[in-house]
Structures are given as structure tokens and as C-alpha cells.
Amino acid sequence: MNSKLVRGFLKEFEKYTSEVHFKKIASDSGRVLKLDGNENLFLNNNHINRIIRDSLNEIETNIYTDTLCQDLRESIGRHFHLPADYVMVGNGADGVIDTIVKTFLEPGVNAIVVEPTYSIYKFFIKIMGAVYRPALLEDDFSLTSEKIIELCDDKTKLIFLCSPNNPTGNQFNYDEIINLLEKSHSILVVDEAYAEFGNYSLIPALRKYQNLIVLKTMSKAYGLASLRAGYCLANPEIVEELLKVSPPYPVNIIAQKIIPKIFAQVKLILNAIKKIQVQRSRLVKQLNNITGVEAYPSDANFILFRITDKKLTGNIVHERLLKKGIILRNRGSLPKLENCLRVTVCPPMESEIFIEALKECMS
Asked: pLDDT exceeding 70 applies to what percent of the chain?
């Protein structure tokens, strides 16, 4: 291919990909414990699969679905006591983020991202040719809204923050986020992928704040990561603009049929969330009992911890764990996260395997 045909900046661009291929790790080590994806490992898969099988009987695969997934939008709206015109759906939360940046960003404008965080925001912002402005959290990972406001100018179109934040795990102070909404003239995108594991949601604030977009996913608490379904909730005027950019048929028919049924399984989902919260507290204590490890408090379904032993690094421990077939996410390249690893909260049996392996890797 003639490389001159490709957009110039892509020469320096890296594709987004997961860190390791777990099937290769399994073949090398003889087993694999995948704890790098922040998936919900506490749901009854047999129950979920039964819902999926039942939904397949309702599907006509030879017929196109509704272009804008109106039935799904209405179902999500009912779940949150909002009209359907507050809802836009996409191919995972990443698909929704893609639509948001395509709607509001272009060369010559900028977007602020609260860092360290999920790298996909930066990925999509740069694809649009907009200026990427990082706003660093404090050393304790707390949010200072006034510092972010100082970074804004008349060309700041979007502010992204993830709360609870991936990968630090903490949910930001509610009043700091409200201060951002009230003092900024930009649109604030709050990624609540992990809010079900936290203490609050900003969804009740949507009717008051016209510059708020709340981003949600079915991949985490609801355990549908492989079905790729996400959505955002926002003022209808914002949603109308997003729908102009959203590709047709943004969510596959299987996910469209399953999601309303999963929403109805309140007891199942809440039970899994409660188990995660209990095991999360236990795992933080276990990590902090290991010499040379510092685990941070979490409001999500994962835990960030730092290797503090001066004789080791996060990279070394990460590689040692891989050789044992245990996959974590190495976050040491992100600002303020030197020697930090992230682990998904997992059931007690898997947790014990991980903790014993980590102790061996620290010795």
C-alpha cells in the first residue's frame, strides 16, 4: 500500500490492544488466571447463558434491527426513570466515546482528560486531530476541580473523567464534580463504568445540568463484556446531536434482546455486587499484609497496588506472575503509577491462588 494515502499523524500512532494474549499464557504455563480485564467474575454464568438461549428464540437474524435501537433506548430509559430521548446506545462504551468525540471535536479545539485513567479517551481524541490536555490527579488520586477549570479555555469542548476511576479505583468527591459542572462551559463526560460498585451515580443530576453526559456499560456489573453494549445518558439536545454521528445499528440484536432481561434480574446483579464489595475489602487487606506491597482503597471491582520493595519493580513482578499463568494489568507507565499493577477482584479460591503466587514473586 502507498503509505502516503494514510493520514500523516498515524505514522506515530499505536493501535489500541490488550496487553497480553491469555491463550498464549495458558499454553506456556499450563493454566491461566485472567485478572486483568475488570470483568464481573461473581455472576452465575449458567443463569446468564439461560437468558441468552431464551433470547435467541426471539431473534430473526435475516432482518435488520431498528436503526437507532429505539426499543433498547426505551428499556434503558425506563430502568433509570428517564425518557428514551435521554439515551444513546453504542457498541460498548468505547463506541459511545467514539461518537462523542466525533460529535464535538475537530482540529483546533481541545479536550481535557483527568489522568491517570483509561487510555481510550486519549486514543479517540487524537484520532480526531484535537489537542489532548491531561489534568493530573493529586498524589492521593483525589480530584481538585479548580485545577481542571484553570486548564479550560474557549476551545475546550470536552472534559473526561472516570469515576470510580480506572485504574486508581477511587470514586471522586461528588461536590468536586458538581463544581466542575457549574463552573465549566464545556461538556463533562463522566464515565460510570464502575459506579455500580461505588457509592453514588450522577444520573439524578442529568435533569439539572445540561452539560453532563453520563457514560455507562453492560460489561462490568452486568457481566456482558463480550456482547459489546454501552450507552450514555444526557440532555435530549446533546443526544440528538450524538445520533447524527452514531452509526446505524450500533448494538447487535442479541444484546438488544438480553439487556432488558438482565435489567430485570435485580437480585442476581445486586448479589454479585455485594460479593465483590466484600471480597474487595478482604483482598485489599491480604495485599497490604504482603511486605513490599501497598494496595489502594477501591470503589470499583478491581484494586490498584504498588510494588514498594526497592529490590523489585512492577515490571519484574508482572513478568513473574505471567510465568505462573496469572495475568494482571501493568499500569506502571501511566503518570503517578510507577510500579503499579491492577488486579480484578475475584472469588476467594482464585484470590488465594493469586495471593500465594504474588508472595512467591515478591521473595
From this structure: 95
